Protein backbone atom coordinates (compact mmCIF):
# COMPACT_ATOMS: atom_id res chain seq x y z
CA UNK A 1 0.00 0.00 0.00
CA UNK A 2 1.38 3.42 -0.94
CA UNK A 3 1.97 6.09 1.68
CA UNK A 4 -0.65 8.88 1.67
CA UNK A 5 0.52 12.31 0.50
CA UNK A 6 1.04 14.79 3.34
CA UNK A 7 -0.62 18.20 3.71
CA UNK A 8 -1.01 20.60 6.64
CA UNK A 9 -2.24 24.00 7.78
CA UNK A 10 0.14 26.30 9.67
CA UNK A 11 -1.12 29.00 12.02
CA UNK A 12 -0.84 30.46 15.50
CA UNK A 13 -3.09 29.58 17.23
CA UNK A 14 -4.39 26.63 15.21
CA UNK A 15 -6.31 24.30 17.57
CA UNK A 16 -9.65 25.78 16.45
CA UNK A 17 -9.04 25.05 12.76
CA UNK A 18 -11.59 22.88 10.96
CA UNK A 19 -9.43 22.56 7.86
CA UNK A 20 -8.31 18.99 8.73
CA UNK A 21 -11.96 17.89 8.89
CA UNK A 22 -12.80 19.63 5.62
CA UNK A 23 -9.89 18.12 3.70
CA UNK A 24 -10.48 14.66 5.17
CA UNK A 25 -14.06 14.81 3.88
CA UNK A 26 -12.90 16.11 0.50
CA UNK A 27 -10.41 13.23 0.27
CA UNK A 28 -13.08 10.68 1.17
CA UNK A 29 -15.50 12.15 -1.36
CA UNK A 30 -12.94 12.19 -4.20
CA UNK A 31 -11.13 8.99 -3.17
CA UNK A 32 -7.78 10.70 -2.71
CA UNK A 33 -5.11 9.21 -0.44
CA UNK A 34 -3.90 12.04 1.79
CA UNK A 35 -3.25 12.98 5.41
CA UNK A 36 -3.83 16.56 6.54
CA UNK A 37 -2.92 17.97 9.95
CA UNK A 38 -2.97 21.26 11.82
CA UNK A 39 0.47 22.41 13.00
CA UNK A 40 0.73 25.19 15.56
CA UNK A 41 3.49 27.42 14.24
CA UNK A 42 4.73 30.50 16.14
CA UNK A 43 6.02 33.27 13.86
CA UNK A 44 9.64 32.60 14.76
CA UNK A 45 9.28 28.97 13.60
CA UNK A 46 7.45 29.57 10.32
CA UNK A 47 10.49 29.27 8.05
CA UNK A 48 11.95 26.22 9.80
CA UNK A 49 8.56 24.45 9.90
CA UNK A 50 8.08 24.89 6.16
CA UNK A 51 11.65 23.74 5.49
CA UNK A 52 11.15 20.61 7.61
CA UNK A 53 7.85 19.87 5.86
CA UNK A 54 9.53 20.12 2.46
CA UNK A 55 12.44 17.88 3.48
CA UNK A 56 9.96 15.32 4.77
CA UNK A 57 8.28 14.99 1.40
CA UNK A 58 5.18 17.09 2.15
CA UNK A 59 3.11 18.05 -0.87
CA UNK A 60 1.23 21.22 0.12
CA UNK A 61 0.37 23.64 2.89
CA UNK A 62 -2.37 26.02 3.87
CA UNK A 63 -1.27 29.18 5.68
CA UNK A 64 -3.50 31.07 8.09
CA UNK A 65 -3.28 33.85 10.70
CA UNK A 66 -0.80 35.41 11.35
CA UNK A 67 1.47 34.15 8.55
CA UNK A 68 -0.24 35.04 5.26
CA UNK A 69 1.92 38.08 4.51
CA UNK A 70 5.15 36.85 6.08
CA UNK A 71 5.20 33.60 4.08
CA UNK A 72 5.46 35.51 0.78
CA UNK A 73 9.21 35.95 1.19
CA UNK A 74 9.69 32.18 1.51
CA UNK A 75 7.98 31.26 -1.77
CA UNK A 76 9.94 30.59 -4.97
CA UNK A 77 7.12 31.60 -7.31
CA UNK A 78 3.82 33.43 -6.71
CA UNK A 79 0.68 33.47 -8.83
CA UNK A 80 -0.39 36.89 -10.11
CA UNK A 81 -3.19 37.22 -7.55
CA UNK A 82 -0.91 36.25 -4.66
CA UNK A 83 1.74 38.73 -5.81
CA UNK A 84 -0.85 41.50 -6.04
CA UNK A 85 -2.27 40.62 -2.64
CA UNK A 86 1.10 40.28 -0.97
CA UNK A 87 -0.49 37.44 0.99
CA UNK A 88 -0.50 33.67 0.51
CA UNK A 89 -2.75 30.97 1.95
CA UNK A 90 -1.91 27.97 -0.25
CA UNK A 91 1.49 26.45 -1.01
CA UNK A 92 2.50 23.48 -3.11
CA UNK A 93 5.79 21.88 -4.07
CA UNK A 94 6.57 20.98 -7.67
CA UNK A 95 9.95 19.79 -8.92
CA UNK A 96 11.58 21.03 -5.73
CA UNK A 97 10.17 24.57 -6.03
CA UNK A 98 7.71 26.15 -3.62
CA UNK A 99 4.71 27.83 -5.27
CA UNK A 100 2.19 30.10 -3.56
CA UNK A 101 -1.26 31.45 -4.31
CA UNK A 102 -4.18 33.00 -2.47
CA UNK A 103 -7.56 31.25 -2.68
CA UNK A 104 -9.29 33.44 -0.06
CA UNK A 105 -10.77 35.88 -2.55
CA UNK A 106 -12.06 33.17 -4.86
CA UNK A 107 -13.56 31.36 -1.87
CA UNK A 108 -15.24 34.50 -0.57
CA UNK A 109 -16.70 35.48 -3.94
CA UNK A 110 -18.00 31.96 -4.53
CA UNK A 111 -19.67 31.87 -1.10
CA UNK A 112 -21.21 35.33 -1.48
CA UNK A 113 -22.52 34.87 -5.01
CA UNK A 114 -23.04 31.15 -5.64
CA UNK A 115 -23.96 29.96 -2.15
CA UNK A 116 -25.78 33.00 -0.77
CA UNK A 117 -26.95 34.73 -3.92
CA UNK A 118 -25.62 38.13 -2.84
CA UNK A 119 -24.90 40.41 -5.77
CA UNK A 120 -21.61 42.32 -5.87
CA UNK A 121 -22.03 44.21 -9.13
CA UNK A 122 -22.14 47.95 -8.53
CA UNK A 123 -22.44 47.51 -4.76
CA UNK A 124 -20.74 49.65 -2.10
CA UNK A 125 -18.48 47.58 0.14
CA UNK A 126 -16.83 48.34 3.46
CA UNK A 127 -13.97 46.12 4.62
CA UNK A 128 -13.07 46.45 8.29
CA UNK A 129 -9.36 45.83 8.79
CA UNK A 130 -6.26 46.26 6.63
CA UNK A 131 -4.27 43.10 7.30
CA UNK A 132 -3.41 40.00 5.30
CA UNK A 133 -7.02 38.82 5.17
CA UNK A 134 -8.07 42.04 3.45
CA UNK A 135 -5.18 41.85 1.01
CA UNK A 136 -6.43 38.50 -0.23
CA UNK A 137 -9.98 39.58 -1.06
CA UNK A 138 -9.89 43.13 -2.50
CA UNK A 139 -8.88 42.36 -6.09
CA UNK A 140 -11.30 39.41 -6.53
CA UNK A 141 -14.16 41.57 -5.20
CA UNK A 142 -13.30 44.33 -7.66
CA UNK A 143 -13.07 41.82 -10.51
CA UNK A 144 -16.63 40.76 -9.67
CA UNK A 145 -17.80 44.30 -10.35
CA UNK A 146 -17.96 45.84 -6.88
CA UNK A 147 -18.80 49.53 -7.32
CA UNK A 148 -16.63 50.98 -4.56
CA UNK A 149 -14.63 49.50 -1.72
CA UNK A 150 -13.75 51.44 1.43
CA UNK A 151 -10.99 49.88 3.54
CA UNK A 152 -11.18 51.03 7.15
CA UNK A 153 -8.62 50.47 9.88
CA UNK A 154 -7.84 51.66 13.37
CA UNK A 155 -4.68 53.33 12.07
CA UNK A 156 -5.24 55.15 8.79
CA UNK A 157 -1.80 54.65 7.23
CA UNK A 158 -2.31 50.93 6.60
CA UNK A 159 -5.71 51.56 5.01
CA UNK A 160 -4.25 54.33 2.82
CA UNK A 161 -1.45 52.01 1.65
CA UNK A 162 -3.88 49.23 0.69
CA UNK A 163 -6.27 51.61 -1.07
CA UNK A 164 -3.38 52.99 -3.13
CA UNK A 165 -2.09 49.49 -3.87
CA UNK A 166 -5.43 48.19 -5.20
CA UNK A 167 -6.53 51.44 -6.83
CA UNK A 168 -5.29 50.17 -10.19
CA UNK A 169 -8.06 47.54 -10.16
CA UNK A 170 -11.03 49.73 -9.23
CA UNK A 171 -12.47 52.38 -6.94
CA UNK A 172 -10.86 51.91 -3.53
CA UNK A 173 -10.81 54.43 -0.67
CA UNK A 174 -9.49 54.45 2.89
CA UNK A 175 -10.99 55.48 6.20
CA UNK A 176 -10.30 55.41 9.92
CA UNK A 177 -12.62 53.41 12.19
CA UNK A 178 -13.34 56.53 14.23
CA UNK A 179 -14.57 58.39 11.14
CA UNK A 180 -16.98 55.75 9.83
CA UNK A 181 -19.91 57.46 11.55
CA UNK A 182 -19.81 59.95 8.68
CA UNK A 183 -20.38 57.20 6.08
CA UNK A 184 -22.97 54.57 5.21
CA UNK A 185 -25.00 52.62 5.05
CA UNK A 186 -23.10 50.22 2.79
CA UNK A 187 -24.50 47.38 0.69
CA UNK A 188 -21.99 44.91 2.14
CA UNK A 189 -19.85 45.14 5.29
CA UNK A 190 -17.06 42.58 5.67
CA UNK A 191 -15.28 42.14 8.98
CA UNK A 192 -11.66 41.21 8.29
CA UNK A 193 -10.39 42.08 11.77
CA UNK A 194 -9.58 39.61 14.55
CA UNK A 195 -11.87 41.50 16.93
CA UNK A 196 -14.04 38.47 17.62
CA UNK A 197 -11.20 36.35 18.97
CA UNK A 198 -11.52 37.88 22.44
CA UNK A 199 -15.31 37.45 22.46
CA UNK A 200 -15.99 41.15 22.89
CA UNK A 201 -18.68 42.93 20.89
CA UNK A 202 -17.12 45.43 18.44
CA UNK A 203 -17.77 49.15 18.69
CA UNK A 204 -18.19 50.14 15.05
CA UNK A 205 -20.70 52.94 14.38
CA UNK A 206 -24.11 51.46 13.57
CA UNK A 207 -24.66 54.00 10.79
CA UNK A 208 -22.62 51.84 8.41
CA UNK A 209 -25.48 49.29 8.47
CA UNK A 210 -28.94 49.69 6.99
CA UNK A 211 -31.87 47.27 6.74
CA UNK A 212 -30.65 46.01 3.35
CA UNK A 213 -26.98 45.78 4.33
CA UNK A 214 -25.38 42.35 4.13
CA UNK A 215 -22.83 41.72 6.91
CA UNK A 216 -20.18 39.03 6.61
CA UNK A 217 -17.44 37.97 9.02
CA UNK A 218 -14.41 36.25 7.51
CA UNK A 219 -14.10 34.30 10.76
CA UNK A 220 -16.36 31.36 11.57
CA UNK A 221 -17.63 29.58 14.65
CA UNK A 222 -17.47 31.38 18.00
CA UNK A 223 -15.04 34.00 16.67
CA UNK A 224 -17.64 35.33 14.23
CA UNK A 225 -20.47 35.70 16.73
CA UNK A 226 -19.55 39.08 18.34
CA UNK A 227 -19.57 40.85 14.95
CA UNK A 228 -22.69 39.07 13.73
CA UNK A 229 -24.54 39.94 16.96
CA UNK A 230 -23.42 43.55 16.59
CA UNK A 231 -24.65 43.56 12.96
CA UNK A 232 -28.08 42.22 13.94
CA UNK A 233 -28.28 44.81 16.69
CA UNK A 234 -27.47 47.52 14.14
CA UNK A 235 -30.42 46.40 12.03
CA UNK A 236 -28.88 44.05 9.46
CA UNK A 237 -31.34 41.44 8.21
CA UNK A 238 -28.75 39.35 6.38
CA UNK A 239 -25.62 38.14 8.19
CA UNK A 240 -23.19 35.27 7.62
CA UNK A 241 -19.98 33.84 9.03
CA UNK A 242 -16.97 32.85 6.95
CA UNK A 243 -17.68 29.12 7.14
CA UNK A 244 -18.73 29.00 3.48
CA UNK A 245 -15.63 30.94 2.48
CA UNK A 246 -13.44 28.52 4.44
CA UNK A 247 -14.97 25.56 2.64
CA UNK A 248 -14.80 27.18 -0.80
CA UNK A 249 -11.19 28.36 -0.48
CA UNK A 250 -10.28 24.86 0.77
CA UNK A 251 -11.92 23.34 -2.30
CA UNK A 252 -9.84 25.64 -4.50
CA UNK A 253 -6.65 24.56 -2.73
CA UNK A 254 -7.66 20.89 -2.91
CA UNK A 255 -8.15 21.15 -6.67
CA UNK A 256 -4.73 22.79 -7.08
CA UNK A 257 -3.11 19.99 -5.08
CA UNK A 258 -5.05 16.97 -6.37
CA UNK A 259 -6.44 18.00 -9.77
CA UNK A 260 -10.02 17.17 -8.80
CA UNK A 261 -12.80 19.49 -7.63
CA UNK A 262 -14.70 18.41 -4.49
CA UNK A 263 -18.42 19.03 -4.07
CA UNK A 264 -18.75 21.79 -1.46
CA UNK A 265 -22.54 21.71 -1.34
CA UNK A 266 -22.46 18.32 0.35
CA UNK A 267 -20.15 19.54 3.11
CA UNK A 268 -21.94 22.87 3.61
CA UNK A 269 -25.23 21.04 4.08
CA UNK A 270 -23.79 18.68 6.69
CA UNK A 271 -22.04 21.19 8.94
CA UNK A 272 -22.65 24.70 10.25
CA UNK A 273 -19.93 27.27 10.77
Textual characterization of the structure:
With 273 residues, this protein is α/β, with parallel strands linked by helices. 35% of the residues lie in helices and 21% in strands. The chain has helices spanning 19-30, 46-55, 80-85, 104-115, 132-143, 156-166, 225-233, 243-258, 264-270; strands spanning 5-11, 34-40, 60-63, 77-78, 90-94, 97-101, 124-128, 148-153, 172-176, 188-191, 214-217, 238-240. The strands form two sheets. Strands 2-1-3-5-6-4 form a six-stranded mixed β-sheet, sandwiched between helices. The protein is globular. The two termini are 35 Å apart. The mean pLDDT is 94.
Spell out the blueprint of helices and strands.
Blueprint: E1 5-11, H1 19-30, E2 34-40, H2 46-55, E3 60-63, E4 77-78, H3 80-85, E5 90-94, E6 97-101, H4 104-115, E7 124-128, H5 132-143, E8 148-153, H6 156-166, E9 172-176, E10 188-191, E11 214-217, H7 225-233, E12 238-240, H8 243-258, H9 264-270
Parallel strand pairs: 1-2, 1-3, 4-6, 7-8, 7-10, 8-9, 10-11, 11-12
Antiparallel strand pairs: 3-5, 5-6
Helix pairs in contact: 1-8, 4-5, 4-8
Indicate the low-confidence ranges by residue numbers.
none
Q: Main sheet, how many strands, which sense, barrel? A: 6 strands, mixed
Structural class: alpha/beta
The best one-word shape is globular
Which percent range describes the beta-strand content? 15-25%
Tell me the number of helical segments per DSSP (H or I, 4 or more residues long): 9
Strand order of the largest sheet: 2-1-3-5-6-4
Radius of gyration, in angstroms, nearest whole number: 18 Å
The N- to C-terminal Cα distance equals 35 Å
Mean pLDDT: 94
Number of strands: 12
Order of helices and strands: EHEHEEHEEHEHEHEEEHEHH
- Residues in helices, as a percent range: 25-40%
Amino acid sequence: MSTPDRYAVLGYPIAHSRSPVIHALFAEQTRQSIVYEAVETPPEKLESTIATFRRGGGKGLNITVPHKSEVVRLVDELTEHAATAGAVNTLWIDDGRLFGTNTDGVGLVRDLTANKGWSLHGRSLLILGAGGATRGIVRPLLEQGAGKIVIANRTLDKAIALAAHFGAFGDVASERFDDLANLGPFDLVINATSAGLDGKRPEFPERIVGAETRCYDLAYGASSQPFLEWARGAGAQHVASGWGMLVEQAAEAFEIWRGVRPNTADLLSRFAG
